[in-house]
Amino acid sequence: MFSTLSRRPLLSPVRDTILRRLFALLVTGFFFYVASPLLLPVLMGGLFAVLVMPALERLEVRGLRARFGAAILTLGMTLLFIIPTALLLYMVIKTGLQQLQAFKDLPKPAHLDWAHSWVESPFARRVLDWLKDLYPISSEELAEGAQDLVRSTSLRAADLLGGFLLNLPGIVMAMIVMIVSQYFFLVDGRRLVSFLRRNSFFSRHQTEELIERIGNSSRSVILASVISGVAQAFFFTVLCAAARVPNVPLVGALVFFSSFIPVVGTSPVTFGVAIHQALTGNSVAAVAAVIGAIVVSTMDNFIRPWFLRGSVNLHPMLAFVAAFGGLQTLGFVGVFLGPILAALFVAILEILSEPERPAAPAAAPAVGDAGSSGGSGKPA
Q: Are 222 and 262 in contact (CB under 8 A)?
């Protein structure tokens, strides 16, 4: 009995430590469960804060307080990028939904009329003549197949766009959370980074390298995606306007948002416009759209590597998996977060594979320094 009593003081600190950690883990898990619907907007706010943090530092150098600088930058990002992008996306979805709804309400003979007109066009006739040597197919079968494919695709697209509009209040709330998060990340972000430095399980050098890579990859991925999308949309919109392609604003907006899709990019939109103009007999607009599609894809191959050089050195296969996986699991936000997480993953592997740098030895005091410092004996 005495031996049992003597062990209790020794086991009690261990038991209390385990209970504290379990309780902390329980509270942390419950917090993330409650906050899970808003974690993605918070992360996007953090990415925007990382993007404009150098501008905040320049404002502080000029004597502006951090809170005022953060408020100015947050307001600028909101008015110049977040709200215009959201309104553009809303316009695209609303216009597309209206056109799809009008197409869906047409009677079946009307669908067959446009399908037959496409099939009877000179371009389609040449394609049919070439296909008949490979696979026997009649113009009637092709018209019905095209009609069924377009109708089913339009119904699916209308359901997706309608679901987006139904979730509009939640999207507005997520935007508000993103804007507020950006402000507080700008104000208190450096305090958070200091906390991570103090509690990192990597060495000091490894922690600094990870923090630097996260910042560089975040800025590079966002800038590369946005600037590339704007350049592609602007060029293709101007070209379509010059060729008198209908619905030019809608086409430009679709090019901008499709540019964020990894690997595929704007090709479905640009070449789709070219095919549509060819089938409707507008050969000049079709040729212009084909030229624009080729130039736009070439622009993306030059703009993105220029912004990503030296910061996100990802293998194309890894970038493909990260971007598409992020798009599938996290939605549109995953297009940005996927490559950033992939860059962080590669950085961690590189750091762990390298031998850890030994700590720099303290410099020995010079002979004359001890006397001049009052005999304290501290190193210089």
A: no
